[in-house]
Please model this.
Amino acid sequence: MTAPVLSHRAMRRAGESRFSPARVWAMLLRYLYILRSSWPRTLELLYWPTLQMLIWGFMSQFLRQNSSYVAQAFGVLLAAVMLWDLLFRSQLGLSISFLEEMWARNLAQLFVTPLRPYEWVLSLLAMSVIRVLLGVIPAASLAIPLYHYSIFDMGLPLVAFYVVLTAMGWALGLAICGGILRHGMGAESLAWTVIFALAPLSCVYYPVTTLPGWLQPVAWCLPSTYVFEGMRDVLFTGAFRTDYFLAAIGLDLVFLAVGTTIFFIAFRDARRRGALLQTGE
Amino acid sequence: MPDSVILVERLVKRYGKTLAVNGVSFAVERGVTTALLGGNGAGKTTTLSILLGLLLPTSGMVNVFGEDVLRHRYRVLPRMNFSSPYVDLPHRLTVRQNLVIYARLYGVPRRDERIARLARDLQIEAMLERPAGRLSGGQKTRVALAKALLNEPELLLLDEPTASLDPDTGDWVRSYLEDYRARTGATILLASHNMAEVERLCSQVLMMKEGQIVDRGSPDELIDRYGRTNLEEVFLQIARGRRAELEPVS
Model:
């Protein structure tokens, strides 16, 4: 019998440590390999935000000549489109990386390693950021030469909107992943559909006052509503509503707590039902 | 007192009204290759999944390396690994990318060196840059074995390690496992219904049926006890329930 060539003690230490950035990086690397292995998937990241920006950019140009509302702030529709896409891509970026593991039937292989579920979640969040940046930044940059409009001119408020929408996207993504873990691949379409149910209430393209009175309090329960109202304030008046931002952050924390709880309950339930072994197409 | 790597007591796993594992107790000693032998639905894979922490039992105690797996699985997972033909590696990643990811997850030091050595030992060097999904069944098994040995596990759990392999590849895998155990002193627990494999590799057999261990012993002991000429005949006798005293044994 020979002595082990590897340092078991070092590996044990690595495995026992409560949190390992190396394991998070390993998972992130896995998703980057997947992204790199398929150019259609990479192209798809750019395709939809760019297409949206083109449609709404030309629509805005037309409305500018025919509407005093849009003439006041040409960028309002384009900014709304891009911020909505940021929210959607943030949720979808997380859900797609999660689904990659389901499609590959890889959960059993992953969770016999020392990988913690929360380390996996951190890699999913990081991948969501990468996917959003890969998709939205080129589209936003393309609007500059096409329409002489730069969303980046919004400055620091844009960073605040980005943070709020990204966190909300993560929360929804985690809840959706929990739903898919619980109900299997039959619930896969949730990843593409759930968020659109929130679009009318988020008041992406119109003020909250447009909604019926009884629906307005419901709209104000979404962090995204504060972002789109705040965005219109920035574009129309130049003022950043700190009260909106703080309310949105508070709601984000609630959403994240609920989304995370749903995900981890579903994960534990999957271990109870044996779904980590069986989940797949 | 024997040095038990695995100690399972009164393990029960229930799915609704179905009892997948029904009060199983057993111990596996260090450096020994043990088989969980039984037909489909006997509870072999369920037992392995519980040992790996992939599945939560309904009740019972599961101890690996002296640690309660249900409470401290992360203390033991770095020291063990698992391979099954029914759990694939991600298809679109190359073999090397897959091995790099798992080496990082296990915190394997000098991982390039380790992967190169395993690739040489398991004769997968030529396929390192190929997508895992484009490998043949035999190649996939060797790659899965490479993944399972990345952390040089002290405990290796194998679910039907040679299922659907041609006889030559199956024989090669069995030889490699024998050599690995002899070289490292590892403990191996394998679920199988390949009798020849079990006779060749295992010094202890746990016969499972309908979620219970109905008999146990070395292959020779079982063959003698049932008055048969090989383990397959013993298996068939147990599977068909012809032994009058076929009761769970503790």
Observations:
- Chain B touches chain A through 47 residues (CB under 8 Å).
- The beta strands of chain B are 4-15, 18-29, 33-38, 59-64, 67-68, 80-83, 155-159, 187-192, 204-209, 212-217.
- The first helix of chain B runs from residue 44 to 52.
- The CA atoms of residues 204 and 218 of chain B lie 4 Å apart.
